[in-house]
Write a structure and sequence with these properties.
The complex is a heterotrimer of chains A (124), B (417) and C (573).
Chain A lengths: L1 E6 L8 E6 L4 E4 L4 H12 L2 E2 L2 E7 L1 E2 L2 E6 L3 E2 L3 H9 L1 E4 L7 E3 L9 E3 L4 E2 L5
Parallel strand pairs in A: 5-9
Antiparallel strand pairs in A: 1-2, 2-3, 4-8, 5-7, 6-12, 7-11, 10-11
Chain B lengths: L1 E10 L3 H12 L4 E4 L15 E3 L1 H4 L3 E2 H15 L2 E3 L3 E5 L4 E6 L3 E12 L3 E3 L8 E2 L5 E3 H11 L1 E2 L3 E5 L3 H12 L3 E6 L9 H8 L6 E2 L2 E7 L6 E6 L12 E4 L2 E4 L3 E3 L2 H5 L4 E2 L4 E2 L12 E3 L10 H21 L7 E5 L3 E5 L2 E2 L4 E9 L3 E10 L2 E11 L5 E7 L7 E9 L2
Parallel strand pairs in B: 1-2, 1-8, 2-5, 8-23, 10-16, 11-19, 13-14, 13-19, 14-15, 24-31
Antiparallel strand pairs in B: 3-4, 6-7, 7-8, 9-20, 16-17, 17-18, 21-22, 24-26, 25-27, 27-30, 28-29, 28-31
Helix pairs in contact in B: 1-3, 1-8, 4-5, 5-6
Chain C lengths: L1 H8 L9 E7 L3 E8 L2 H12 L6 E4 L2 E2 L10 H10 L1 E10 L3 H10 L6 E4 L16 E2 L10 H20 L3 E2 L3 E5 L2 H17 L5 E4 H7 L9 E5 L3 E3 L1 H14 L3 E3 L4 E5 L4 E5 L2 E10 L5 H7 L8 E10 L10 E4 L9 E4 L5 E4 L3 E2 L10 H14 L8 E11 L6 E4 L6 E5 L5 H19 L24 H10 L6 E3 L4 E2 H8 L8 H8 L11 H13 L18 E2 L8 E2 L2
Parallel strand pairs in C: 2-3, 2-4, 5-6, 5-16, 6-13, 9-18, 16-24
Antiparallel strand pairs in C: 1-2, 7-12, 8-12, 9-11, 10-11, 14-15, 15-16, 17-20, 17-21, 17-22, 19-20, 23-24, 25-26
The chains are: A alpha+beta (124), B alpha/beta (417), C alpha/beta (573).
Chain lengths: 124, 417, 573
C-alpha cells in the first residue's frame, strides 16, 4: 500500500490530504471538498506544472526574455524543458505572445514571450 | 528648469502607477508617469513567475505579462511617460520636481498627484544579522533582478532567510538556474508566504524549510563562506547551543518589505506607523488635499490585482478632486478591531459607496467571520475557512455607513495553535 | 624593570595560569613571551608590562591557548617581489594610505622630494580610517603628558584651517560627558582637571538643564555634564580623500594593492613588495594596525599592536540635526568609551564599543557590541528607537600597550620614521601629527628645499545632493549624466559615480564608490543602486560585471553568467 501526503493548494484552507494506492484502487482522506480530491489524485498520477523561465535575447534590453508556457507540462518533464530553454537564444525585438519555442519537447505546449523587449539602442 | 503641466502626476510606473495613469486617462484627464527605471513595469519586470492576474483577468500570467498589458494600454491612451527620471521632491501644492539626463531638471505642475513608489526591502542590519560584511549578502529582490534581468548568478550555493513568497520563489528560481539551496530559514513558527509556494517552490525541489530558525552570523572576510543558523525561542531570540554552520557563498534575505515613503514624509503627510504608509481615505487621498497614494507605497499587498484596484481608485479620486475639489474633510476612522493588524483605507466618509477594505490579521484562524460594523449596524460579514497573516483579506462594502463614529473591522474565529 | 614586572604579576588571579617570560632589550623595551590560557590574558600582561616605570614600550610575543593572531607568511610574496626587481626609486616612501599616511604625504609634498604612498588595500583609508567615527575630540580624555593628549588639542585647533584648505566638511559641535549621579562627579572633575592641563579651550562642568538647552534630545536623567565646545566632526574618508587628492596635485604618487613583504634597510632602503622592490631614501611607517610588523621587518621592533575592535551603529538620516554633539559617559557608568553623535552628513552615529581581539582583520559585529551601544545610547538620549538603525560595522584600533602614539625617527634605522599606535584621537590629532612628521623629516634632512608651486588648496567636487536647483541645472548642463540619479536614497548621480571612478584616486570597487559618493549608504543599503553601480563600474573600467568586486580581490559580487551562449545554441524564430 502506497501512502502519499499532499497539501492542497486550491484554496487557502490548505487541507492535508493523504492518498492511498493499493495497486488497484486509489482513495483520499483529509480533503475538504471534491476539488481537493482531484488535486491529490492529479498530483499523484500526473502532476503538471507551468513553465516560467528566461531565455537569452541578443541585442535586447534587458538581455533576458522572460517566457511562459501556454499550458502546464508534466512535472517530470520540467527539467528537460528547462534545459531546452536554457540553450535557446532569440533576438530583439520581441513582442509579448511571440512563440519562442513551438510545441516544446512535443508536449503540446508552446513557450511564448511574456513581454516586449526592444532593441538595446532604442531604450537609451 | 523645464516646466511641464499635467492633470495627474503619477510617481512610479509599477502596477499601481500604471493602473492609476490608465484609469485617469480613460476618465478624460491628462496623466503623466514619472519612473526611475529605464522602463515601466516596476517590480513586475523581474517577476517572471506566474500567479498574477487571476482575479483581474481570470488568467495565470507572469508578472511581466501583467505589466505588458498595462504598458500597452497606457501607450495606446497616450499617457505621458518619463523614464530614467527620479523624482527629487514634491510639494503640497502638487509641484513635482524630477530630473533626467535628457530634460535635466523638470518641474511638473499637476492638479493631483498619485504616490505609487512601491516598497524597498528590509536589510540585514534591520534584522540584526551579525558577523562580517563580505560580498555575497543580497536581498531576494536584488538576486531576482540579477538572475532574471541581468543574466548572472550571484553565487553557487545559497541559504535563504525568510519564507515570504519572494524568498520561496527565489529558492525555486535559483535551483532551476543551477544554484544549490541547502535550506530556507524562517524565524517565525509559520511560513511567511502562500502554501502554493511552499508546495511548488520548496517541496517540488526538496528544499527544506526550517521554521523557528534564523541566521545569527555571516562568515567570510571578502566573500561569504558560510552562515551560522540557530533555533529561536518564543521571543524570537536565538537559543544558545543550537547553532549550526552551513557552508555557502550566498545569503539571500527575504525579511520583509517597507513601503517607500521618503517623498511623502518630506511633506509631512500623515503616516500610519503600522503600515508604514500614508493614512488614506476610501478614495486613496492622503492627508494632503489632492495627493493620493496607491499600491505598495500604502501597505504591502500580496496580490497585484488588488494593487491595480487601488491605483484605479486613486485615479478616480484624483479626477473627482480635479473636477470639483472633493471635500477634504469629514473623515471618520476605520478601526482595526479583533485580530486585525491593520486596515486600509484608514478613513472613510459617511455615505462613501463601493468601498474596498484591505486588511491583514495578526494570528491565523479557522472558520473566521470578518465583520464590518458602523456602530451597532453590521455593514458586511464574510466567512473565511482560513485567515492567515500572509494572505491579505479584502472586504467589499456597498456603503461605509452614514456617520457616527466610523467603522470597525473584527475577525473572530477559531484560533489555530 | 623585569623584576618589577614579575612582582606586579605575582598574586594576580588573571595571570595564575600564565607562563610569562620577560626581558629587556635596547635599554627600555620590555619583551614578553610565553603562554596564557586566553587572549585577554595576553593583552592584560602587555598592559601590565607597559605600566612598569621606565618601560618605554612593550613587545608582546605571548601566545594564547584559545585564539591567536593569524600567521602571515610573506616569504613567497617577498621572493616574487625580489625576482621582479626594482620598480621604483623615490626619496620618500610612505607605507599606509590612511588618514595618517595621506596627511604625511600632503605635508611633505611641500618639499622637492619624490614621494610614493603604498597601501595593501585597493583603496585609500580602507584599513581603519574607514570605520572611524570621525570625531575631532576636544582632548579632555587623553592623559596629560602623553603625546596623544598634546597632539589632540593642537590638531583640534588646526581643523578649521585644514577644512578650509582642503574643502571637507567639519562641524565644530561640542561634546558632553554625561553625569547621572554623584559617582560620576569624581570622574568629571578629573576630566576637567586633565582637560584644563591639556589646554582644552572652554572646558566646563554645566548643569543638566543647560546641557539640554544646548541639546534638547539629551536624556532628562542627565543631572550635569562636562562640556567642551571645541569638539567636532568630520567624515574620515572625506578628509583622507581630500588629503590624497591634494597630495597628488602636488606630485605625490599612490600605488594601491601594494603589500610590503620585507625591508632591507640601507642607503637606499629596499622595500620589497608584491609588485617589486621600491628603493627609498626615507621610509615613513604609517601602516596602521600593521605598523608593528613593518617595524619588525626593518629590524626595529619595539612595540606591538594589540587590535581593539570597535563597532559603530548608523541610524537613519531623517534624524539629522537631532543630536549633533557627542555625548559619552564616565568610567563609573561604562568602562568603555563612545556614545551617540552625528556625522556631518547627518546620520546619527552611535558607538564605538571596545573589545580586544587577536585578529587585526576581525571586522565582525557581535550581538554584545550592538546591545552595549544601543543601551548606552538610549540611556543618554531620548526619542530614538531600535528601528532607526540602518546599518553597523566594525573597525580596529591600532593600539600599542602604552596606548599612546609613537611618532619619532627610528632609533635604530637611519631615515626611518614611525607614526604608529594611531588609535583615537588620531583623527583629531591629524593636522598636528602631519606637522610633527614634517618637523621630524626636516630635522632628518637639514636644508631641504621647498617647492615654489606647492598648492595646499583643494576645491572639492560639488555634491549634487547639496546643490540648489540652479546649481543642479548647471551641473546637468556640464554633464547630462548628472540628470541620471542612480542612488535614490542619497541622491547620487551617474556623473558623480563616473567621476569617482576616474578620479585622482580612482574608485574601482563598490565600497570605494560608496565611500566617495555615498551611493549605497542610505536606508535601502544599495538595494536599488547596487546593480546599477555594478554596471557603471564594469562599463567605465572595461570589465565584465563578473570582475567587479565589493572591495578588491576575493570579494567578487557575481559568480558566473547564467547562460553559456557559445555551446549548444538552439536558434529560435
Amino acid at each position: 500500500m502506497t501512502e502519499k501526503m499532499y497539501t492542497c493548494i486550491v484554496c487557502p484552507k490548505s487541507c492535508r490530504i493523504v492518498l492511498y494506492d493499493d495497486g488497484e484502487k486509489r482513495s483520499v482522506t483529509g480533503n475538504g471538498c471534491k476539488r481537493g480530491e482531484s488535486y491529490a489524485l492529479n498530483e499523484y498520477a500526473n502532476p503538471m506544472r507551468m513553465i516560467t523561465t528566461a531565455v537569452r535575447v541578443i541585442g535586447g534590453k534587458p538581455g533576458l526574455l522572460p517566457v511562459i508556457s501556454t499550458g502546464e507540462v508534466p512535472r517530470d518533464k520540467l527539467m528537460a524543458c528547462m534545459a531546452e530553454l536554457y540553450a535557446t537564444v532569440t533576438s530583439a525585438p520581441v513582442k509579448q505572445g511571440d512563440v519562442i519555442v513551438e510545441n516544446v519537447l512535443g508536449l503540446n505546449v508552446d513557450i511564448i514571450a511574456s513581454r516586449d523587449i526592444k532593441k538595446k539602442e532604442e531604450t537609451v | 528648469m523645464k516646466i511641464l503641466k499635467t492633470d495627474v502626476a503619477v510617481i512610479g510606473g509599477g502596477p499601481a502607477g500604471l493602473a492609476a495613469a490608465l484609469e485617469a486617462s480613460k476618465l478624460g484627464a491628462k496623466a503623466m508617469i514619472l519612473e526611475r527605471d529605464f522602463e515601466l513595469g516596476g517590480i513586475l519586470q523581474q517577476c517572471i513567475h506566474d500567479g498574477f492576474g487571476l482575479l483581474k483577468f481570470g488568467r495565470r500570467m507572469s508578472g511581466c505579462q501583467y505589466a505588458q498589458f498595462y504598458i500597452d494600454a497606457v501607450g495606446e491612451e497616450g499617457v505621458d511617460v518619463l523614464t530614467d527620471t527620479m523624482v527629487l521632491e514634491i510639494t503640497p501644492d502638487k509641484k513635482v520636481y524630477a530630473v533626467n539626463s535628457t530634460d535635466g531638471l523638470v518641474c511638473v505642475e499637476a492638479r493631483a498627484v498619485v504616490l505609487s513608489m512601491g516598497c524597498r526591502e528590509r536589510t540585514r542590519s534591520q534584522v540584526f544579522i551579525l558577523g562580517t560584511r563580505p560580498a555575497g549578502v543580497y536581498t531576494a529582490g536584488q538576486v531576482q533582478r540579477i538572475i532574471n534581468m541581468e543574466g548572472y548568478l550571484p553565487g553557487k550555493r545559497a541559504v535563504i532567510l525568510g519564507s515570504g513568497d519572494i524568498g520561496m520563489i527565489m529558492a525555486r528560481r535559483m535551483t532551476l538556474e543551477g544554484i544549490s539551496v541547502p535550506g530556507v530559514y524562517e524565524v517565525m513558527p509559520a511560513p511567511g508566504g502562500l502554501t502554493r509556494n511552499i508546495v511548488q517552490c520548496l517541496n517540488d525541489y526538496d528544499i527544506p524549510l526550517h521554521l523557528n530558525h534564523t541566521v545569527v552570523q555571516v562568515h567570510g572576510k571578502k566573500r561569504v563562506e558560510g552562515v551560522t543558523v540557530a533555533r529561536v525561542d518564543e521571543r524570537r531570540k536565538p537559543v544558545p547551543g543550537t547553532e549550526k554552520r552551513i557552508d555557502c557563498d550566498l545569503l539571500v534575505l527575504s525579511v520583509g518589505l517597507i513601503p517607500e515613503n521618503e517623498l511623502s514624509r518630506a511633506i509631512d503627510i500623515e503616516m500610519d506607523p503600522v503600515t508604514n504608509g500614508p493614512v488614506v481615505g476610501a478614495d486613496m487621498m492622503t492627508s494632503v488635499p489632492g495627493i493620493f497614494a496607491a499600491g505598495n507605497a500604502v501597505a504591502v499587498f500580496d496580490l497585484v490585482d488588488y494593487v491595480s484596484d487601488t491605483g484605479e481608485r486613486a485615479a478616480r479620486g484624483a479626477v473627482r478632486y480635479i473636477g470639483d475639489g472633493t471635500k477634504t474633510g469629514g473623515w471618520l476612522p476605520v478601526t482595526a478591531g479583533e485580530n486585525v493588524l491593520y486596515v486600509v483605507p484608514q478613513k472613510v466618509r459617511p455615505g462613501d459607496e463601493a468601498v474596498d477594505l484591505y486588511l491583514r490579521v495578526l494570528r491565523p484562524m479557522r472558520d473566521a467571520a470578518v465583520t464590518v460594523r458602523a456602530g451597532n449596524d453590521t455593514l458586511r460579514q464574510d466567512r473565511h475557512a482560513v485567515v492567515n497573516p500572509p494572505e491579505m483579506v479584502r472586504v467589499r462594502l456597498e456603503r461605509a455607513g452614514d456617520g457616527g463614529a466610523g467603522i470597525r473591522v473584527d475577525v473572530i474565529g477559531e484560533e489555530v495553535l | 624593570m623585569v623584576d618589577e614586572f614579575y612582582m606586579r604579576l605575582k598574586g594576580k588571579e588573571r595571570f595564575a595560569d600564565c607562563d610569562i617570560r620577560a626581558e629587556v632589550k635596547d635599554g627600555d623595551i620590555l619583551w614578553l613571551s610565553g603562554i596564557a590560557p586566553k587572549w585577554e590574558n595576553v593583552v592584560a600582561a602587555g598592559h601590565l608590562a607597559a605600566s612598569v616605570p621606565g618601560v618605554r614600550n612593550v613587545v608582546n610575543h605571548m601566545r594564547a591557548l584559545d585564539h591567536n593572531p593569524p600567521e602571515h607568511d610573506r616569504t613567497a610574496v617577498a621572493e616574487t617581489g625580489r625576482a621582479i626587481g626594482v620598480i621604483e626609486r623615490v626619496d620618500v616612501l610612505i607605507i599606509g594610505a590612511g588618514i595618517t599616511g595621506c596627511g604625511a604625504a600632503r605635508q611633505l609634498a611641500k618639499y622637492r622630494q619624490s614621494i610614493l604612498v603604498v597601501d595593501k588595500c585597493n583603496d585609500i583609508g580602507e584599513g581603519n580610517t574607514k570605520s572611524n567615527n570621525g570625531m575631532v575630540h576636544s582632548g579632555y580624555d587623553s592623559k596629560h603628558g602623553t603625546l596623544k593628549a598634546k597632539l589632540n588639542v593642537e590638531g583640534n585647533a588646526k581643523y578649521d584651517g585644514w577644512a578650509r584648505e582642503l574643502g571637507f566638511k567639519f562641524n565644530r559641535t561640542g561634546s558632553f560627558v554625561a553625569g547621572f549621579d554623584e559617582s560620576d562627579r569624581v570622574h568629571m572633575e578629573y576630566f576637567l582637571e586633565n582637560g584644563t592641563k591639556n589646554g582644552v579651550p572652554g572646558i566646563e562642568i554645566i548643569s543638566g538643564e543647560r546641557a539640554r538647552e544646548i541639546a534638547p534630545y539629551l536624556s532628562d536623567e542627565i543631572r550635569f555634564a562636562l562640556w567642551t565646545p571645541s569638539a567636532g566632526y568630520v567624515e574620515p574618508q572625506e578628509v583622507t580623500l581630500a588629503l590624497a587628492e591634494n597630495a597628488i596635485d602636488n606630485g605625490v604618487r599612490l600605488m594601491l594593492e601594494t603589500e610590503v613583504a620585507a625591508i632591507e634597510t640601507g642607503e637606499p632602503h629596499r622595500v620589497v613588495t608584491n609588485r617589486g622592490v621600491i628603493e627609498a631614501g626615507t621610509v615613513i611607517n604609517a601602516a596602521g594596525a600593521r605598523a608593528d610588523e613593518i617595524a619588525a621587518m626593518a629590524g626595529d621592533e619595539f612595540f606591538t599592536i594589540h587590535p581593539r575592535r570597535g563597532t559603530l551603529v548608523i541610524l537613519d538620516k531623517s534624524l539629522k540635526g537631532r543630536l549633533i554633539q557627542f555625548v559619552g559617559t564616565t568610567p563609573a557608568n561604562h568602562t568603555k568609551g563612545g556614545g551617540p553623535t552625528e556625522t556631518p552628513e547627518g546620520n546619527p552615529l552611535w558607538g564605538p564599543s571596545a573589545i580586544e581581539v587577536p585578529d587585526k582583520e576581525d571586522y565582525a559585529v557581535d550581538a554584545d557590541d550592538i546591545e552595549f551601544i544601543m543601551e548606552k545610547g538610549f540611556k543618554l538620549t531620548r526619542g530614538f528607537k531600535m528601528s532607526d538603525v540602518i546599518t553597523y560595522f566594525s573597525g580596529i584600533r591600532a593600539s600599542t600597550y602604552k596606548e599612546d602614539f609613537i611618532i619619532e625617527a627610528s632609533r635604530k634605522v637611519e631615515r626611518f620614521i614611525h607614526v604608529a599606535g594611531m588609535q583615537s584621537p588620531a583623527v583629531a590629532a591629524a593636522p598636528a601629527v602631519a606637522d610633527l612628521l614634517e618637523e621630524i623629516f626636516r630635522n632628518m634632512h637639514p636644508g631641504i628645499e621647498q617647492k615654489e608651486d606647492y598648492n595646499p588648496y583643494r576645491t572639492p567636487p560639488k555634491e549634487f545632493r547639496y546643490c540648489t536647483m540652479e546649481e543642479r541645472e548647471e551641473l546637468i548642463r556640464q554633464d547630462p549624466r548628472h540628470g541620471h540619479v542612480v542612488c535614490r536614497c542619497e541622491t547620487v548621480t551617474e556623473a558623480e559615480i563616473v567621476n569617482a571612478i576616474h578620479g585622482k584616486v580612482p574608485a574601482r570597487t563598490m565600497d570605494a564608490i560608496k565611500r566617495r559618493t555615498r551611493a549605497g549608504m542610505g536606508r535601502c543599503q544599495s538595494g536599488f543602486c547596487c546593480v546599477r553601480v555594478l554596471d557603471i563600474l564594469a562599463r567605465e573600467l572595461g570589465l565584465s560585471p563578473l570582475e567587479v568586486t565589493k572591495n578588491g580581490t576575493g570579494s567578487d559580487l557575481l559568480y558566473a553568467p547564467s547562460r553559456q551562449p557559445e555551446e549548444g545554441e538552439v536558434r529560435a524564430k
